[in-house]
Specification:
alpha+beta; Alpha-Beta Plaits; four-stranded antiparallel β-sheet; two-stranded antiparallel ribbon; 7 helices; 6 strands
Length: 223
């Protein structure tokens, strides 16, 4: 049964959300490893405010980077996965309007980069973005699992999802984090509540069958 198109929830500081967007007309938004790398750089650059400059100016060395006093994270990322025609983020808002500001800046910045590089014009993403509010820890863990299982749909990675280079799954498998992704919360949850179950086993378990969770899993094929 089809449901009415969902409207994004209000973003409340301290709470968690599953964020998703895909290419307009389901087109590819990452054509090669350089596109993936640039998008990751964009995510990392715009997660803080105030900004010293635009990312494009910083990369071209047009302006010498200045030290920014009192720069703060506006979002915290727990999981991510970049797929050829869409991306998923599991993030927490840590400053007022943080998610909306962050998504607007990364969308605008990456679209300008992609259009210039690939000699195209017009929107790259289908609308702004879609978001689902995650109301408890159980749902948070299941959404992280869903995000990290995304590459299973790609023939090349269906038997070795940990090796997929454009997600945060390997950070969890190795129990580490990078500048952009914070794995502490989810990793500590397993250590405290179920030490016998590690995160890799959790992700490799059978697909999620709890129908209550499906509204949180923003289907890349939905209209």
């Amino acid at each position: 049964m089809k449901t009415a198109r969902n409207v994004n929830p209000p973003f409340v500081t301290g709470l968690y959300y599953h964020i998703y967007n895909r290419g307009v007309e389901k087109r590819e938004i990452f054509s090669n490893k350089w596109d993936y790398s640039r998008f990751m750089e964009t995510l990392n650059f715009y997660r803080k405010l105030p900004l010293p400059m635009k990312l494009s100016d910083f990369r071209r060395n047009k302006i010498r980077k200045k030290e920014v006093v009192n720069q703060k994270n506006i979002i915290k990322t727990l999981c991510y996965c970049l797929m050829p025609n869409h991306f998923h983020l599991l993030i927490q808002q840590v400053e007022e309007n943080g998610i909306s500001t962050f998504l607007r800046k990364i969308t605008d910045s990456y679209t300008k980069y992609f259009n210039t590089k690939h000699e195209r014009i017009g929107p790259l993403f289908q609308g702004s973005f879609k978001a689902k509010f995650i109301e408890n820890d159980e749902y948070l863990l299941q959404v992280s699992k869903y995000i990290h299982r995304n590459p299973l749909s790609l023939a090349m990675w269906k038997n070795n999802v940990r090796a997929y280079p454009y997600s945060s799954y390997d950070l969890y498998a190795l129990n580490k984090q990078d500048d952009f992704c914070n794995t502490d919360f989810i990793s500590s949850y397993f250590a405290q509540t179920n030490p016998k179950l590690d995160y890799q086993k959790f992700v490799k378990e059978q697909e999620i069958e709890d129908l209550r969770l499906y509204p949180l899993f923003i289907d890349p094929e939905e209209n």
